[in-house]
Amino acid sequence: MTSSIQKNLASKNAEYASKFTKGNLALPPAKHYLILTCMDARIDPAAAFGIDLGDAHVIRNAGGSARDALRSIIISQQLLGTKEIVLIKHTGCGMLTFSNDDAHSLVKKNLGPSAAAEIATLDFLPFTNLDNAIKGDVDYLKRSAAVPGDVVISGWAYEVQTGTARQIV
Amino acid sequence: MTSSIQKNLASKNAEYASKFTKGNLALPPAKHYLILTCMDARIDPAAAFGIDLGDAHVIRNAGGSARDALRSIIISQQLLGTKEIVLIKHTGCGMLTFSNDDAHSLVKKNLGPSAAAEIATLDFLPFTNLDNAIKGDVDYLKRSAAVPGDVVISGWAYEVQTGTARQIV
After folding, report:
1. DSSP letters of B66-112?
2. Entry pTM
3. What is the mean pLDDT of residues A71-93?
């Protein structure tokens, strides 16, 4: 069975591929940086943050969490040569709306005890203040022994209401 | 100090924000699905996979790993109502080029013993065959008790040389 979402992907992709001209880009990002941001549906990193195809790694997870992204960041830096991290969290983030206890209770209620047991030790990494979360994640990356000391790291807040990115740190 | 990458972001974002008209989108994805793909610089998910702003969560990590993304997937489904997963890995992926041992050795060599100790238990989640990795991750998600049984899951291979997405499962 093909879902309407799969059909949309196939038809939009066929259109994209028919006009595709950038098949010779190198594996390592040309501008040697990575963007770490949230999975939020209201963010289009390429358009909003001016990333041309081939220029940067883009890591996205719930909340734009640096801890969650550490594996990818190490691979990006040690195997593919990126030297700068741009961390962008955003206003109206879902991670501001629940606690770890809320999420674990919801999984138990909706999915049952075996699901709850499977993720018993999972930290959902919610946060309560946007600017503090940005500063905290930049600090975490600066303190991590797995991130070289000369990597440039900045932290930004993106406003989903206006499309504006504001540098915090 | 402002880097050239930060300056580029600020100027491109100012242009984006000046034309921004979609400030009223809801937090939950309008089309109730999530895309999970790789952080690779050669992938622009919105353009290549036909995602309009506000329609879908986009999770990206090194390799488009389902295991690595589980926290984000649970949040997407249980707190923000998504019902379908589209997993897209790609040709020429960096994850095909090294082993866990290679990555741990590189961290120790480049960053020293304290970095190696900090990430001693980290699984870098490399893989050796693209189609098998796609099938394996779809299977992992279908077996996970934390992913509801009625969630629609498909797996795709994206060709960075041609811009074409091919459904595998």
Report:
1. TTTTHHHHHIIIIIT---EEEEEEETT-GGGS--HHHHHHHHHHHH-
2. 0.98
3. 98
